[in-house]
Amino acid sequence: MQIAARDVRGRDAYRLLIACLIPRPIAWVSTVDLGDRVNLAPFSFFGGVTTSPPTVMVSVGRRRGQHKDTARNLLVSRECVIHICDRPLAEQMVATSAEVDHGVDEFELAGLAKEPAVDVRPPRIAGAAIAMEARLERHMEIGDGPNDLFLLEIVRYHLRDDVLVDGLPDAAALRAVGRLGGAA
To answer: What is the per-residue pLDDT for 56?
Structure first.
C-alpha cells in the first residue's frame, strides 16, 4: 500500500503518523505559570535532538486553537521538568492527561507528591525514575494546527538508583511507559 501524505487529513493523518512512529516515549512535563500554579501533562510527540548540549523536543498540540497550559507556561516561564513515566505511575500519568480548567494542579488530581527541582521553578514528581530539569532553547509553530514545538535544553538529570545499571538508566529496570499507536 502507498499513501500520499497530502491525501490524508485531520484525525486520519494523526492516527496514521502515530501508528508509524512506534514506540514513542512519553514526556511527562511539569511547568508553572507566572502565579506559580503548577501544571503536569503527558506528551508523546517527544524525542532527543542533540547531546551537546543535551536537548530534547516536545510538540504540544493546541486545543480548539488555543495554547494548552504546558505551552502557555513554557512560553512565559521558559522552564520545565520532563519525567519519563515508569509502569508503576502509568495510571497517574493517564489521569494527568484529563482536560481540566487552567489552574487545576494535576499533581493533586493524580495524587502525586512534589519535590523541588534544583535549577528550575517547576517541581518534579517525588520518586520519579527519571526527571530532567530543562530550559526553553527555542519555540516554533509547526503545521496547520499549529502545534507548538519546544526545543528544551536539559540542565540537570535526576535518576533513581534502582533503574541504573553501570550508572545509566536500564530499559528493563525502568519499565518505561510509551505510546504504540492505536486508539487516540
So the answer is: 94
